[in-house]
Specification:
- The protein is α/β, with parallel strands linked by helices.
- The strands form eight sheets. Strands 5-4-17-16-15-6 form a six-stranded mixed beta sheet, with helices on both faces.
- Strand 4 and strand 5 form a beta hairpin.
- The longest helix has 21 residues.
- The two termini are 29 Å apart.
- The site of iron/sulfur cluster (SF4) has 11 residues, from helix 3.
Length: 778
């Protein structure tokens, strides 16, 4: 980073040679370049494994190189030849390891043995699998109620592992399913279920080839789902308009050089992506979409007054939607002043976006966590859907709604039953299929689970992958919650901070990665399945030798715990774990849409789960797509911050060398940051108003919570960046300490990690706790 003055030096375009260089660096850094490179040729291939990175879809006719820079990082990170063996754990106490960075912990490499925490020596020690299962089972059986246990899932778990896991938890007697999706797309699921009757998007990858306007909202594909850039670029090349709404100006959305295009690479050329780039204030998207709709209604009124046809799709509205009149009235009642103030956009920008919308006959709206992690995220997503309904942009080619999921199988896990508020039909099907009487009472999501562990009503935590303490908000409170447990079990490929907050009894159980060959007791190679953001279900089978002979698959580990806890009378866990086809048969009989599962998933590229909304069949209470008509928020966090004068709205996001809580390296190439993570981005004029210089180190103090707990993130370097005044941005998990548990989305319970109210303080002032915050000019 340029540590003196001015903006950091950013790479000229996303992708390109920078991406190729980075791929080489990460392959070499894994110390297993050959197995890593070989594995990459199998990534996202019909007879290979699904990339363990994001959930972006695979094309129907792909090439041999269906992966991106992030895919390379994910694969090489897993295919490394580094090992965290029992000898490593004997040398380092858990207390010592707690002082290591996230990156340093995972850099130790793959876990090799099941480990049990020994409180006397404060170290993990190797243990036999059967001993681990027996103690876990006995401890769970000894609890006075099944709701004392929290069954957490990460989006890496396959459909088969997730299905078996929910079956285990429900056979045991609880619906406590805190899930990583609670931290990301929960608002999408809720808003879309209300609006179109299904909590998923309605588009396929092919629709990006047909759309002539694509609205990309609160999303940074260059880092989070890079192959999407290729689809956006192809759309831009054939003349589609790509309208970006994102507070931070992200390089990946501006220009992209395709590393797989040799001519372009040799010429050092790149192509623009966004035709229009708007930078709303954080949380301003709802107002922006309402503004676009207001402009559309005005244009429509003008057209009718001039005797031209209506610009709205009245046939669609009449046949397929409800509450249109209420929505129209709400839009008309919303003053432009409120729209402009909340969105932070000019009237001209909104009118232009409306022109793009009206000029396209096939429109896609796509979004990610910049939309979903606010207090009013559900309302915002409904507002996006409202706009698409106006001209019938749903359920036809080249048009529709597309929430872009993060982790590889986060959508599939929910499909196969990871749901703390399960539909009655699922529970009835499980009872019928397995002769059970599974619980009906709703369970805990992530916030509920943390609360229950903190108040002592939950006493055990089982993590099927993930890094709970780093993925969740309010890090210190979550550590307190986890460490108070009677039992913690963490299923993982690599060491992370969640493993260093042991309960009284604590196990660290190593599992196979997505890239590794999974053989059953007869030597037969097994495949698992995953579902991408476009509802496509793919088979996935690894090709690398397992990192250690002691690893078990996630499915095998779940089955081992289940057999030791609930017994095998009704469910033959061992048989299911020994032949995943049997699990798929059970999924087929209990989850809609999986008819012929074992056959269909072996077809190249798998199959699409039926999506009724994409067929204009809306399974809502009215049987129609529902317009929503709520008012804009009384005040966004941005408006609250402005009113206070000395307060900023902070959003947390990923660096480019990061995937969720996994830190592959310390660079953020597209934002010009190298070798460090403790940075906070701010508008240059805000730095001037703070009388702070670029490069100066500051502390950030949360002023968002009312529980009296002081939340401080210490020692961050200020970096000027192109973003709205009054807003700040920096990386999670480092900044999660500032996100209070009490700040979460309405209806979604998603921590509002994109709108945390903070003050900036000089380092010495925080230590003294006496000085005033650095002030910000209004
Ligand atoms: S776009 Fe996502 S799924 Fe595809 S290769 Fe990259 S990280 Fe993996």
């Amino acid at each position: 980073m340029d540590r003196s003055q001015g903006s950091p030096k950013r790479s000229s375009a996303a992708g390109g040679w920078g991406a190729l260089k980075s791929c080489g660096k990460h392959l070499l850094g894994s110390r297993a370049p050959l197995s890593g490179a070989r594995a990459l040729l199998s990534a996202n291939q019909p007879d290979g494994f699904d990339c363990p990175g994001c959930a972006w879809g695979d094309p129907a006719h792909g090439s041999s190189f269906e992966f991106c820079e992030n895919g390379v990082k994910a694969v090489s990170w897993e295919a490394t030849d580094r090992r965290a063996t029992p000898r490593f754990f004997a040398k380092h106490t858990v207390s010592e390891l707690r002082g290591w960075t996230d990156h340093a912990l995972e850099s130790e490499g793959r876990l090799t043995h099941p480990m049990r925490y020994d409180a006397e020596t404060d170290t993990y020690r190797a243990v036999a699998w059967e001993e681990a299962f027996a103690e876990i089972g006995a401890t769970l059986r000894g609890l006075d109620h099944p709701d004392r246990v929290e069954f957490y899932t990460s989006g890496r778990a396959s459909n088969e592992a997730a299905y078996l896991y929910q079956l285990f938890a429900r056979a045991y007697g609880t619906n406590n399913f805190p899930d990583c999706s609670n931290m990301c797309h929960e608002a999408s699921g809720i808003a879309l279920t209300q609006a179109i009757g299904i909590g998923k998007g309605t588009v396929l990858l092919e629709d990006f080839e047909k759309a002539n306007a694509i609205f990309v909202v609160g999303q940074n594909p260059g880092t989070n789902h890079p192959r999407m850039l290729g689809d956006l670029r192809r759309a831009a090349e054939r003349g589609a308009r790509v309208v970006v709404l994102n507070p931070v100006r992200e390089r990946g959305l501006e220009r992209f050089a395709d590393p797989q295009n040799s001519v372009e690479m040799l010429r050092g050329a790149s192509r623009p992506i966004a035709s229009h780039y708007y930078q709303p204030k954080p949380g301003g998207d709802m107002a922006a979409f309402r503004g676009i709709a207001k402009a559309v209604f005005a244009r429509d009124a003008a057209a009718l007054a001039e005797g031209r046809p209506s610009l709205l799709d009245h046939a669609f509205i009449a046949a397929h939607t409800s509450a249109f009149a209420d929505y129209r009235a709400a839009v008309e009642a919303t003053a432009w002043a409120a729209i402009l103030d909340q969105s932070g956009l000019t009237r001209e920008a909104i009118e232009t976006a409306a022109d793009v919308y009206l000029g396209a006959d096939r429109v896609i709206a796509t979004w990610a966590m910049g939309v979903t992690q606010h207090r009013h995220s559900v309302a915002t997503i409904r507002e996006i859907a409202n706009l698409l309904f106006l001209r019938g942009h749903i359920g036809r080619p080249g048009a529709g709604l597309c929430p872009v999921r993060g982790h590889s199988n986060v959508q599939g896990d929910r499909t196969v039953g990871i749901n703390e508020k399960p539909p009655a039909a699922l529970l009835e099907a499980l009872d019928r299929e397995f002769g059970l009487s599974v619980p009906r009472k709703h369970g805990h999501n992530v916030l509920g689970a943390i609360g229950a562990m903190l108040d002592g009503s939950a006493k055990a935590f089982i993590g099927l992958g993930g890094n709970f303490v780093r993925a969740t908000p309010d890090t210190k409170l979550v550590e307190k919650a986890l460490s108070g447990c009677e039992l913690t079990v963490q299923i993982a490929t690599k060491l992370n901070h969640s493993h260093l907050v042991p309960g009284r009894i604590a196990y660290l159980l190593p599992c196979l990665g997505r890239t590794e060959i999974d053989r059953n007791s007869r030597g037969k190679v097994q495949i698992v399945t995953v579902e991408d953001s476009m509802s496509m279900v793919h088979g996935s089978g690894g090709i690398n030798k397992p990192a250690s002979p002691h690893l078990r698959s996630e499915i095998g580990i779940v089955a081992g715990m289940a057999a030791a806890t609930v017994g095998s009378e009704r469910i033959d866990w061992v048989a299911l774990a020994d032949d995943y086809d049997l699990i798929r048969d059970r999924i087929e009989r209990t989850i809609p849409g999986f008819a012929g599962f074992n056959t269909r998933v072996r077809r190249p590229r798998g199959f699409m789960l039926r999506n009724l909304a994409a067929e204009r069949v809306f399974e809502t209470a009215t049987g129609r797509a529902g317009f929503s008509s709520g008012p804009l928020p009384v005040a966004t966090e941005h408006q609250r911050a402005s009113a206070r004068g000395d307060t900023f709205v902070l959003q947390t996001f990923r660096s480019h060398d990061q995937y969720n809580t996994t830190i592959y390296g310390l660079d953020d190439r597209y934002r010009g940051v190298y070798g460090e993570r403790r940075v906070v981005f701010a508008h240059p004029d805000d730095l001037a108003a703070l009388k702070a210089r670029a490069g100066e180190r500051v502390d950030l103090v949360c002023v968002h919570a009312e529980d009296g707990i002081e939340r401080v993130a210490e020692d961050f370097r200020l970096v000027p960046f192109d973003m709205p005044r009054g807003s700040l941005a920096g990386y999670y998990p480092e900044l999660n300490v500032l996100v209070p548990l009490s700040a979460f989305g309405e209806f979604s319970d998603t921590p509002t990690s994109k709108s945390v109210l903070v003050q900036v303080r000089a380092r010495a002032q925080v230590r003294a706790r006496a000085a005033k915050p650095l002030g910000r000019a209004a």
